[in-house]
Amino acid sequence: MTDIPAKAAVSSASRGSVLLTLMKARTFIALIAVLVFFSIAAPNFLSAANLILMSKHVALNAFLAMGMTFVIVTGGIDLSVGSIVGLCGMVAGYLVLNGIDLQIGYTIYFNVFEIALITLLVGILIGAVNGLLITRLNVAPFIATLGVLYVARGLALLSSDGRTFPNLVGKPELGTTGFGFLGAGRLLGLPVSIWILVVVALGAAYLARYTPLGRHIFAVGGNERAARISGVRVNMVKMFVYMFSGFCAAIVGLIISSELMASHPATGESFELNAIAAAVLGGTSMSGGRGTIGGTIVGAFVIGILSDGLVMMGVSSFWQMVIKGLVIIVAVVVDQAQRRLQQRVTLMQMAKAG
């Protein structure tokens, strides 16, 4: 009779472990579910052309979600990424069309590589502003990035008085042609944006898993005070994650402007919501300290497939917003449940070993 409680504890621990495994695999389960559903509900959903188009859309969200993952892992949030996308797109468009007027009767024009580099530096600089506000002035991440969201969007609008920079084909005599390659070009049959995503994702995953900086990012999110006592340069780590987030947003701004061959100051509105949804759905904890780049990429696929599938089914954009909001809520609820279950399973396993 004395063995009954022990057996019950073992059985409960086993069930808890199975449920915990399912929770950890929730992103893959969700991905399979949406693929199966839309392949049945939407005609031509799994056609090669549609899959490539969806991959391009997923890539844009995945870039932002990777930057958001590092930010959230440290316990922060970046609401400014959508506005950075818009501003960086406008910077690229302005440079293609106008160059930089030195006000001395001379204008500098840049080739496409230089334009891309300058645009990326702008994104990194805005990310650095976020980092400085948070680390040096002790502004809460939500407030700091919300303020930068408005500043960046305002600068994007001011750069053209709210108008679009159209026809970014450039001029051969000025060396500004070729901008469309980023958004419309292909390598080995796949869009260039997909290859850029692969390179950035592999680099981010390697950084997170195998470098001291990656370990420090997770340490700051797990327990900032303990990380600081252990010698981690917490402020530098936070600066890096916001700069990386700005870098990723700049890539998206470049790709969208290149694909459309036009820059619009409203580009990127509400993109931050999709990025947060993809990161959280991919297993990144809003409490900080936990998340993976691989999980975030899968989460971006779920959000991207969900969005495109709903469009193909003719679902109203208003209902799409409702569904995405519910996805975020459910993802956070499941994450909290996973955290509590993990603690219970650990305690049961310790009791079993004892």
Write structural notes for this entry.
This protein has 14 helices and four strands. Strands 1-2 form a two-stranded antiparallel ribbon. Strands 3-4 form a two-stranded antiparallel sheet. The chain is an all-alpha fold. The two termini are 19 Å apart. It has a single domain (45-341), classed as ABC transporter involved in vitamin B12 uptake, BtuC (Orthogonal Bundle), CATH 1.10.3470. It has helices at 3-24, 26-41, 48-73, 81-98, 112-135, 141-158, 181-184, 192-210, 212-222, 224-229, 234-260, 271-281, 293-312, 317-353; strands at residues 100-101, 107-108, 186-187, 190-191. Helix 1 (3-24) runs antiparallel to helix 14 (317-353), helix 2 runs parallel beside helix 13 and helix 5 runs antiparallel to helix 6 (141-158). One of its GO terms (cellular component) is plasma membrane. The chain crosses the membrane at residues 27-46, 58-77, 83-100, 112-133, 179-208, 239-256, 317-334. It is found in: Cell membrane.
Largest sheet: 2 strands, antiparallel
Supply Rg.
Answer: 23 Å
Count up the domains: 1
Secondary-structure element pattern, one letter each: HHHHEEHHHEEHHHHHHH
- Oligomeric organization of the protein chains: single chain
Subcellular location: Cell membrane
Protein name: D-ribose transporter subunit membrane component of ABC superfamily
Membrane topology: Multi-pass membrane protein
Pfam family, one: BPD_transp_2
Summarize the topology:
Blueprint: H1 3-24, H2 26-41, H3 48-73, H4 81-98, E1 100-101, E2 107-108, H5 112-135, H6 141-158, H7 181-184, E3 186-187, E4 190-191, H8 192-210, H9 212-222, H10 224-229, H11 234-260, H12 271-281, H13 293-312, H14 317-353
Antiparallel strand pairs: 1-2, 3-4
Helix pairs in contact: 1-14, 2-13, 3-8, 3-11, 3-12, 3-13, 4-5, 4-6, 4-11, 5-6, 5-11, 8-9, 9-11, 12-13, 12-14
